[in-house]
Amino acid sequence: MLSPALYAIPSVKTQSLAGEERAVPLNEQIAGTFGYGALTAPPPRGRGPLRERPAVVAIVDYEGGARFPADQDSFLAEYFDTSATTAGAVLKRMGAPLRHVGGGTMPPIVQMSTAERALPEPQRVDLVAHRLVHDVFGPTLFMENLDLIVICFDNFSPDGGANRVGHVTVGIGPHAGAQLSITIAFFALAASLRTRLHEVLHSLGGIDVYGHDGNRNYRHSIMSSGAPGGDRETVLPDPWHRLAWQLTAPDIWEVAGYLHGMASFEVGLRAASNGAYPALLLWDAGHSATECLIVELRDNASTHDGLAVDSGVAPGFVLWLLSVDAAGIPVLRSAAPAEGNDRAILTVGSPELELGGWDPWVPAPGSVSVSTPQLRWLDDSPTGFSLTMTLDEAGAYASGTLRFEPFIEFAKAPVRLPLGGVP
Ligand SMILES: [Zn+2]
């Protein structure tokens, strides 16, 4: 168990049966249950606090492949710039800046042979790691920088990316015989910003959420599959990843009391803006201590310091179902017989409640409100409530209101909870 200091969130709201609001300070147990800080714990579970990260950049030019631009020095300078064209820039906007190991000098270029180009992936990854340790940086750099981010531009694929672990046995020097494992974000020079950011975020502990068919949560999480668009397009992480990286400390509403009392409530929602990434967590402990519904408002016009942060999102109200294991990580869930697994952080799509569906909840033309049918949990049991979401008069998707509407036929007995949340 992590120390409570790591779970320092401002406050968590709950609601009593009588309807008066009380503030429960630092309700770290509930947020922690759902993964708050799960990826900021020390390795191996997380990758340490989001802060400035030393980054190593390598360029691998496989002989016989496409050539890198002649101005690769300026290309790399741009990579660490604040322009909107790089994953490094987006990380800066998310509070995780990259710092070039060596203080700004351009990294060496590692040349590969034609024969090496033909190697299968595991050997190729190990080879790159070996070159970095033995020919370029030396083993000490890697042994002393557990949080090191290694970014490898290569031309092995036309426009793809991958994140792989290379394994190296140090052959020379005082550390001879030591075993090193180096996590490397690979991408082709032509890879989109979105792909680059996705691969670098794997190095920070991010997990794929594109699910059994490769297309779940499409356009609503950087850790899902790619969206069409230019190099500058990106999307925010899903709310579980934002919890896990401590970018989002959601208000938590315990809804069991509302179901019993048949009271509805309204609460405001805002889209991301200038480093704030809000979300609302609805939790019915009478259903499950480890499952919840998350509601957020996503706006493709969201900015941070004037830079777009969610330009590739399909805007609207986005509902998510989240189910976590004891470590706060989304569980693997069978999608359907023989269809494979989904991570249980899944959008609830409009209008059919499709899990991982592409369509957010948006008002019909001429309207400012949209309502769900009664929502369902991951096991398809009824939640006992629906939601009506309304955009502010200002229009667009910057802010709105969520109205919680319970159904009497699914009212449950009140659940007594210890002060502070989960038992
Ligand atoms: Zn991935």
Give an account of the 3D structure.
With 423 residues, the protein is α/β, with parallel strands linked by helices. The chain has nine helices and 21 strands. Strands 3, 4, 5, 6, 7 and 8 form a six-stranded mixed sheet that branches. A five-stranded mixed sheet has the order 9-11-12-15-18. The two termini are 15 Å apart.
List SSEs in N-to-C order. Answer: EEHEHHEEHHHEEEHHEHEEEEEEEEEEEE
Q: What is the helix tally?
A: 9
Tell me the overall shape: elongated
Q: Indicate the structural class.
A: alpha/beta
Unreliable stretches (pLDDT < 50, length at least 5) are 1-26, 82-86, 409-423
Largest sheet entry? 6 strands, mixed
What percent strand?
Answer: 25-35%
The strand count comes to 21
From the N-terminal CA to the C-terminal CA, the straight-line distance is 15 Å
> Helical residue percent?
10-25%
Overall pLDDT level: 79
Identify every distinct bound molecule in the structure, by name, code or SMILES.
zinc ion
Rg from Cα = 23 Å
List the main descriptive attributes of the protein structure presented here.
binds zinc ion, 9 helices, six-stranded mixed β-sheet, 423 residues, disordered N terminus, alpha/beta, disordered C terminus, five-stranded mixed β-sheet
